[in-house]
Amino acid sequence: MRFKIILLLSFLIVICFNTTAQNNKATISGLIKDKRSDVPVPYTNLLLKSVKDPKAIFGILSNEEGRFSFPAIPSGNYTLEISTIGYKTLKQNIFVGNLSAFLDLRTIHLEEDINNLTEVVVNSKTQEVSAKMDKKVFTVADNISQSGGSVLQSMQNLPGVTANEGKLQLRGNDKVMVLIDGKQTALTGFGNQSGLDNIPASAIERIEIINNPSAKFDANGNAGIINLIYKKNKQEGFNGKVGIASGYGALWVRKENLPTISPQYQVTPKINPSLSLNYRKGKINAYLQADYLYTETLNKNEFVTRTYDDGTIINQQSKRNRDTHFATLKTGIDWEYNEQNTFAFSGLFGSEKIIDHGEEPIFNADYSQRLRLWQFLEDELKTTAMASVSYEHKFKEAGHKLNAGINYTYHREDEKYYFSNTTPTLTGNDAFKLISDEKVVDFNLDYVQPLKQGRFEMGLKMRHREIPTNMQFFPGENSVIDEDAGGWADYKENIPAIYSNYIYENNKIEAELGLRLEYVNLEYDVNPDHPTYKSDGYYYIEPFPNMRFGYKIDDQNKITAFYNRRVDRPNEVDIRIFPKYDDAEIIKVGNPGLQPQFTSAFEVGYKRNMEKGYFTYSLYYRIINGTITRIATTVPGSNLIYNVFQNADESTSVGIEMIYSKEINSWYSFNLNGNLYQNTIDAFSVTNLYPVPSTYYGERQQMVSGNLKWNSNLQLNKTLKAQVSVIYLAPDIIPQGKVDSRFSVDLGLKKTVQKGKGEVFLNATDVFNTLVIQKEIQGQDFSYNSKDYYETQVIRFGYSYKF
């Protein structure tokens, strides 16, 4: 309670500061008619004059139908003058705000007789990060210290974002929905995230972080949404960009191997060529983005000490040398059939090839005896293909439009594992093969109607998703794997949803009210011969409301409040019934009985814009019911640990996020962002069914954690830029334990060459090699400590050329 009071008092103190305003742009449109006859008046003169700046004057003529449109008008107060022969000049006060990209004045009547003119105040606001405070946008090219790496690596120094074991966390929570160009795909996962550590950052133009999504978005992701915008140029004619990046990681051994295993990967090579092409002429815009990323990586190098209540102590190392080939190709055509109708066709192909050479030596307490050597070779190929067709109809009023689209995604996961199990008395060789074919069809329909004071949105979405999987075990002599746990399983998901959003604004108040109604029917059919799990599933009909309220203290200061309700449905891999043997004695298993978790989120924010900078402050609170987490248990007579997904009870998160960005002078600017939060997991009790029932009683956990990031940008001369990024991650709780603090420093240089058409860069991540993941886990009758010295220090260099 004391922590929450401190947060509230901090917020009240901060909102006392003053700020300056930021301009946004909107399109103003309407229809001119004769008041008496209600007949359109063509070719009227319209002048839009800024109240503050007399030099800012925009002039146009209405068309033959009496319609007019002022494009790209900055936010502010204006006077609209309408005049034509035979009519009296009409003047209206116009306020352009920040909430909508379009402002529809509807019908304006001109009078032949002299009348007193009334004033009309109209509002509009662009959907930008700093205006609505629901979204932050970052350009990938500006992140010099992470150029040439993966999308996951490029996001690690962004506000509120942390990376842990291949996943992103927003404000300490990994339930993040990742989109590509506003759509869910198999590349990044449907609902939960996946694959971010292999997608080349060179393919991405910018990254959007949405902490408080509106009802227009799918209801997944209680932590928020990350939207990856692929590169897509729209310049006239033929143009493009070509680039090549390379680098080396694991420059020295951070911790020596335990005896009797092969060497760790060292001085690991990376290569990332990329190509972006665009051709635009007339009504056609065609584009292509191709990227390839090859890396050798010390993907895991974890040292674990397990201690059991009977006094047994086991030491082990899990080492994984990984080779990755990841290729993506995105292409499409935008066709403007006429001024009102536009079609877009796009396709995306991704191929990810992973070869893992894994070894796990297991020793007794004093390392005098090797109890076991577990070795595996994983050969995995993931293939993704997506096709999209969309249609946009623009009505005669600017911003009044209808969008429809259909997306089809196919994703194949083809895994082969080969195991070798060596003990002092025997040797066994085993294998398994997994095939998973995912097919998803999404259809969406969205309608937007601009209003005099805001806009109205509504739409629907239909999804059909099916994932048949089949795992076949091939046990050898002296096998230790559970061959009966294989077989087939079918995942089927149908989700129809409808939504509506209403946005309102005047000089002082901004408001948004939305509701998404979602029906989910999930079936999970399991091989009836499975020794533990049977067919399962769930369904629900649930509302997901969202509300946003903004109050403009003056032209310079603003406070905003949010509320939304969201859901995190278990992904197919979370309920997958097959044991995963990349760790011989800490085995991960899915749970088909897993249920969705529902979250209610509250946030209050303050925004302060300054000359050449800004400051934001957010106080947030989340309540999660049915928290999804992994729970580790043992079974009688065995030292094996089974890590199974379960629904715990309620958990909460309360915290503060602050961002301060400032350009100090022409050569130095910085972004300082911090996140301080308290996570709480209430006491709960669950039973892991695999391989035999085992009950775990979890005590209440609570910890104050956070992170601090400082990004400094230096303009050394007209063509040379430098960036220094410092990151500190505080200790945090995880299920059944905690993860210790981490710290890193990244450096980068970028130089413009060839008269601005070329760029070269050099950077280094984790310069001091300090990023080590340290965990402490406390089970029912065991505990273990681990330190993962995986590859974090990488030096990269590259070149790109625009034409």
Protein architecture, described:
By secondary structure, this protein is mainly beta. It has 4 helices and 44 strands. The protein has a 22-stranded antiparallel β-barrel. The protein is globular.
Mind sketching the topology for me?
Blueprint: H1 2-14, E1 25-34, E2 45-50, E3 57-61, E4 67-74, E5 76-83, E6 90-96, E7 102-110, H2 129-132, E8 135-139, H3 151-154, E9 161-164, E10 167-170, E11 176-180, E12 204-210, E13 224-230, E14 237-249, E15 268-281, E16 284-308, E17 313-336, E18 341-363, E19 370-394, E20 401-422, E21 427-451, E22 454-474, E23 487-505, E24 509-526, E25 536-552, E26 557-568, H4 572-575, E27 586-589, E28 597-610, E29 613-625, E30 628-634, E31 641-647, E32 651-663, E33 668-681, E34 684-688, E35 694-698, E36 701-715, E37 720-729, E38 732-734, E39 737-739, E40 742-753, E41 758-765, E42 773-778, E43 782-788, E44 794-802
Parallel strand pairs: 1-7, 11-13, 27-31
Antiparallel strand pairs: 1-4, 2-3, 2-5, 5-6, 8-12, 9-10, 12-13, 14-15, 14-44, 15-16, 16-17, 16-43, 17-18, 18-19, 19-20, 20-21, 21-22, 22-23, 23-24, 24-25, 25-26, 26-28, 28-29, 29-32, 30-31, 32-33, 33-36, 34-35, 36-37, 37-40, 38-39, 39-42, 40-41, 41-44, 42-43
Q: How helix-rich are the residues, as a percent range?
A: under 10%
Number of strands: 44
Let me know the largest β-sheet.
Answer: 22 strands, antiparallel, barrel
Strand content: over 45%
User: What structural class do the secondary elements suggest?
Assistant: mainly beta
Helix count equals 4
User: N-to-C terminal Cα separation, in Å?
Assistant: 59 Å
Low-confidence stretches: 4-23, 114-131
Radius of gyration: 29 Å
Q: For the residues shown, what is the average pLDDT?
A: 88
| Dominant shape | globular
